[in-house]
Design a protein that fits this description.
Blueprint lengths: L1 H18 L21 H24 L6 H10 L2 H16 L3 H22 L2 H12 L8 H16 L7 H28 L4 E3 L9 H13 L6 E3 L3 H10 L3 H12 L10 H17 L5 H5 L8 H34 L10 H13 L3 H4 L5 H16 L2 E4 L11 E6 L5 E8 L11 E6 L2 E2 L5 E2 L2 E5 L15 H18 L20 H7 L5 H4 L14 H10 L4 H18 L9 H8 L19 H4 L9 H19 L4 H12 L7 H9 L6 H7 L19
Parallel strand pairs: 5-9
Antiparallel strand pairs: 1-2, 3-4, 4-5, 6-9, 7-8
Length: about 700
């Protein structure tokens, strides 16, 4: 009997422990990492509801504080409010992108209105706003350092830009529009993922001409998993699609794949056409409500560009520099293709990758597939992580005691050169149905300094969709995939090396047109022999990548630069067009075609459009900001020029980049941080030189970058 009672008691205690929501309290795990194994989907909504309630109570406490409003009791107190909610959302949202299913999507739709209402409730709280304004108006009376000043400015600006100055019906209109916009953006992203997962292209052995062995093997394995041996299953997952377009000799199938890929979300159950038009118009209405002519005017206030005119100036200057090179490039490709086929060939969108790759191979004897054996994923991990070791002295050690959210994921402890703990980085490399396409960096926990002076270190994650290993081969990457890894790892370093007082200013919480500098800076190392020699070895023989292949990577790196630039400029023009509208758009496809006409390299193809799948601007945070990739490219080329002058692993230059860029986050105006690192304003010269574009003009960025202003 005693034994039975003991068993029952133990079971009761276990059940009680299991009933406790793990998201309700700080995580009692190594480094307070997320206890993924203990969290179920049913835990999120109660934790979000509880987090919202606690955050509102904390805001109410600030409002009820009878002391004279000052920086600490108002601005810092607000910064520290909502940490319980942040802890939940910092788990939930990364998994919505990396490990989603129908339940998660339904849950996202349920909690989105709650979170939108919470955000507007805080931003439109008149008592809270009065205190913030009082502190801001008296800011010269407080002894604030540069980071304090930036937090105050960002807090004040965010309230103004969120409707704090609105009154009466305008406040309710803002609240309604914000809620509707939040739901529409969530729906847009879900439609993109859902439609992508519907595509299954079944081919036979007769359809595979030109495709690399690894691509064919992966397609056979995918078919086998579906119980259809002897067939080949292709999807529109990015690595599969890109390989097919580059290597398939079947022009009819390339066209089919292109039309499917570029026609996504244009019609049918998951159409985003009406969704994106509503998103653009609600953004316009919000901007108008806040006193701005367009959403771009509203959105660009706190950026390096500052206003739409400066964005268009950048886009136009790059267009004018690159269009002549693109026309010459296309003429050469068309001539080559015609000679190859023995008949005149007009290059279509589904032809560019195929024929440009053929021409690239002919000119440089360069074949990305031939380089895959030298970029086995585990070796690349060592090489990319090793870049941070050489530049900053960091070390990365996998720790299997840290819980992960999927078997493909690995967790690494990161330590500084003195052995001190810096943070945790999770890696998630392969495609799956539950993961959205593309590549990104996110964080499960930011960095900040606690009230008692502890430096609370970050947990970051890099997520990609690389070529998966097969039954006979490990994951072998193309140089493009290695470049993607370097890019996202640059974002990760921005988060890992953060050293700021406030979480809202740490890591990648910088002006949007500055955030891509650390990531794109890293990409420069792909063409550096000294870097590649450290890890690029044949996965079977162990042979280091030969000098001639390294030379080919370098000499071919400029090939197609004009095409790639105009492609990015098209995205930038389309983004700006949607966010400078002054009235609702009727025909989304016609609107898009007109916006990108000056950089269009092909005539419009019926049944295709970019906008319905343009998650960066309609489902993410790059609205009126896609130009920032090119803006940051000017910065990264100029920044890397310093390393080319002093040595690509130069310790002094690396330390200056770390201390002035990576550690500072958004604590100061990025123009000041950049000048401090570089000793000068950036010019486009280094970018043109890197891309092989002959333009001797000593042009600066499309404006004189302003100094920090309150």
């Amino acid at each position: 009997m005693k034994k039975l009672l003991t068993t029952v008691l133990a079971l009761s205690i276990a059940l009680m422990g299991k009933a406790e929501n793990p998201l309700f309290s700080e995580f009692s795990t190594l480094h307070s990492t997320v206890p993924f194994n203990e969290i179920s989907i049913g835990d999120y909504e109660p934790a979000i509801d509880r987090g919202i309630k606690m955050a509102l109570e904390q805001v109410e406490a600030i409002c009820n504080n009878r002391a004279v409003p000052d920086f600490d009791n108002t601005i810092v107190a607000l910064e520290n409010s909502g940490k319980e909610l942040d802890r939940v959302l910092n788990v939930f949202y990364p998994l919505v992108s990396a490990l989603s299913d129908d339940q998660m999507m339904e849950l996202t739709m349920r909690v989105t209105p709650k979170l939108s209402d919470y955000a507007t409730t805080v931003s439109l709280n008149p008592r809270l706003w009065a205190k913030i304004k009082q502190v801001y108006d008296n800011r010269d009376k407080f002894n604030l350092d540069a980071e304090d000043q930036m937090l105050l400015k960002r807090t004040y600006d965010s309230f103004v830009n969120s409707g704090a100055l609105l009154e009466g019906e305008d406040r309710e209109t803002y609240r309604r529009l914000s809620a509707e916009l939040s739901e529409l953006s969530t729906l847009f992203g879900q439609n993109v993922l859902k439609e992508l997962n519907t595509y299954e292209i079944w081919l036979t052995a007769d359809d595979l001409a030109g495709l690399p062995e690894g691509v064919v093997e992966a397609a056979a394995l995918a078919a086998k998993d579906k119980g259809r041996d002897g067939e080949y299953l292709f999807t529109l997952a990015q690595p599969t699609y890109m390989a097919f377009m580059k290597y398939s000799t079947r022009r009819d199938l390339r066209e089919k794949m292109y039309r499917l890929y570029s026609g996504r979300n244009l019609k049918g159950e998951y159409s985003n056409v009406d969704v994106l038009k509503q998103i653009a118009d609600k953004r316009r209405l919000i901007a108008n409500l806040l006193g701005f002519a367009t959403y771009a005017d509203y959105s660009l206030q706190n950026t390096m560009a500052e206003k739409p005119a400066n964005v268009y100036k950048l886009l136009d200057e790059l267009r004018d520099a690159y269009v002549p090179a693109q026309k010459a490039e296309f003429k050469e490709i068309a001539g080559f293709a015609s000679g190859l086929e023995g008949t005149p060939v007009t290059i279509m969108p589904w032809d560019y990758s195929y024929y440009s790759n053929k021409l690239k191979n002919a000119k440089y004897d360069y074949d990305e597939e031939a380089l895959r054996p030298y970029f086995e994923l585990n070796n690349v991990i060592q090489g990319v992580f090793g870049l941070a070791t050489k530049l900053y002295g960091l070390t990365f050690v996998e720790n299997k005691d840290i819980q992960i959210y999927h078997p493909d994921v690995k967790a690494f402890e990161v330590k500084d050169k003195d052995g001190s703990y810096l943070g945790v980085i999770y890696t998630d490399f392969f495609p799956r149905d539950s993961k959205r396409p593309g590549a990104w960096m996110t964080e499960f926990k930011p960095q900040w300094i606690t009230d008692d002076g502890e430096n609370s270190r970050p947990h970051v994650s890099i997520v990609m969709n690389f070529t998966k290993p097969t039954e006979s081969k490990p994951s072998l990457l193309t140089p493009y995939e290695v470049e993607t890894f370097l890019h996202e790892f640059g974002h990760a370093l921005h988060g890992l090396l953060a050293d700021t007082k406030y979480a809202s200013l740490s890591g990648t919480n910088v002006y949007r047109d500055f955030v891509e500098l650390p990531s794109q800076f890293n990409e420069n190392y792909l063409t550096q022999k000294e870097f590649l020699d450290g890890f690029a070895r044949h996965y079977q023989t162990g042979e280091a990548i030969p000098q001639n292949l390294v030379d080919k990577i370098v000499t071919s790196s400029q090939f197609g630069a004009a095409y790639q630039c105009l492609r990015q400029l098209n995205f930038g023009y389309v983004d700006m067009a949607w966010h400078t509208i002054t009235e609702p758009v009727d025909d989304a496809v016609e609107f898009e075609n007109k916006a990108g006409k000056s950089v269009a390299m092909f005539d419009p193809i019926d049944g295709t459009a970019v906008s319905p799948q343009f998650s960066h601007i309609f489902g993410g945070g790059y609205a009126a900001g896609y130009y920032s990739y090119k803006w940051a490219e000017v910065l990264d080329a100029d920044a890397f020029a310093k390393f080319l002058e002093n040595g690509i692993f130069d310790e002094k230059s690396a330390n200056e980049f770390r201390t002035n860029i990576l550690m500072k986050g958004g604590t100061e105006h990025p123009a000041e941080l950049y000048r401090r690192f570089r000793g000068q304003d950036p010019t486009i010269d280094a970018l043109l030189q890197r891309d092989g574009i002959n333009n001797p003009a000593k042009a600066k960025l499309p404006q004189d970058i302003p100094a920090h202003k309150d």
